[in-house]
Amino acid sequence: MSHNILSKVDRALAAYLVSVGAGTINDVYPAKRSDNKALPNTVCHSMKWRYAVPHSGVYVVSAQVMVKTLGAPELDQPALDVENQSTFRVADTFDAFFAGVDSSSEALAAAITAAARGTAAEDLQDFTIQTCEALGGDAGNDRNGPAWVDSIDLEIVCCPRDVS
């Protein structure tokens, strides 16, 4: 059992987004693997964790999913193509975090857990997401390049063990 929880959450979120068609394995990345990738792409970045209760093994993770698209069309590219590409990609990605969510995010958490366990990653086979809540989001120019970034902020309660 590995407590590298931020990496596990990044990879679980990426697997989930691919499983629901909000990108492919070629353009949805955990943050650690996202440098110098072609646009459009999606980056899953878990930034911070804390224990829900000290020494409990249950983590509360702050994560952000960033959809990066071209901010302006290339010389030969129609502006509407760029706008539609961004609009649909952001919609598919953000909508994925509201799927099955009513008064609880248990169904969403189960879907993310199933996607993570469906990968070949040995350290995700017992990993469990218990809740995943959208807290907010933002948008703006990417400070590292020519991209526009739309982000959704998530709070995830998870455990490196199987608690289902």
| Overall shape | globular
What's the rounded overall pLDDT mean?
Answer: 89
The CATH superfamily bears the name Phage minor tail protein U
Number of helices: 3
Describe the structure.
27% of the residues lie in helices and 32% in strands. With 164 residues, it is an alpha+beta fold. The protein has one domain (5-159): Phage minor tail protein U (Alpha-Beta Plaits, 2-Layer Sandwich), CATH 3.30.70. The chain has a 5-stranded mixed β-sheet with strand order 1-2-3-5-4. A hairpin with a 7-residue loop joins β2 and β3. α1 crosses α3.
Features:
5 strands, 164 residues, five-stranded mixed sheet, Alpha-Beta Plaits, single chain, alpha+beta, 3 helices
In short:
The chain is α+β, with helices and mostly antiparallel strands and 164 residues long. It has 3 helices and 5 strands, in the order αβββααββ. 35% of the residues are buried.
List the helices and strands and how they pair.
Layout: H1 5-19, E1 28-30, E2 41-51, E3 59-70, H2 79-96, H3 106-117, E4 128-141, E5 147-159
Parallel strand pairs: 1-2
Antiparallel strand pairs: 2-3, 3-5, 4-5
Helix pairs in contact: 1-3
